[in-house]
Amino acid sequence: xxxxxxxxxxxxxxxxxxxxxxxxxxxxxxxxxxxxxxxxxxxxxxxxxxxxxxxxxxxxxxxxxxxxxxxxxxxxxxxxxxxxxxxxxxxxxxxxxxxxxxxxxxxxxxxxxxxxxxxxxxxxxxxxxxxxxxxxxxxxxxxxxxxxxxxxxxxxxxxxxxxxxxxxxxxxxxxxxxxxxxxxxxxxxxxxxxxxxxxxxxxxxxxxxxxxxxxxxxxxxxxxxxxxxxxxxxxxxxxxxxxxxxxx
Length: 248
Hints:
With 248 residues, the protein is of the alpha/beta class. It contains ten helices and eleven strands.
């Protein structure tokens, strides 16, 4: 069973246990780049360049977000959200943002809202330090180019100990922080074979690549850590390892 399907089932069970009113409304809207990560955040981030968008959902007092390249506005009940066709990328983003908001409102998930301004750059060194603390001086495979995290990994582990894959054709084949960016579709197996520890973007649960990533790391018995706020709800429900130092 795929990760998103497992997540939906776990969410439904959680809400039954919590006796959540499935007729309650959820509203999902697209944020501007400044609203999403702050007006002072660096233009190096894809959101600032319009390559990605952030959806924000509100449920009761909870807010939850999801990164996607296919944003859409949506409103409906929790019950209707559970029935969304998740084969559609836009619907996956709506579902994930809504789920994060629901779980935040009920105290199950934390860090469901993206950090802002200086924090997106500041999280890289924190993540790199935690990875070294937990795993030692290892080879890190970064799945999904986040510039601040990439730079911090190279600074801490060295360029020879970091490889990165990305799906954006503007990045593939280019050097970033002294490391050649591999093709996220064609080179994932190569990355998993090479690295000791994987660090994957949580937006993989929206773009449809998470199952392949998880299966490959499970098959090799190598640790996999997700980063970011998009996967906050799924990580809480399924026990996935996640780092998001400044998530709100």
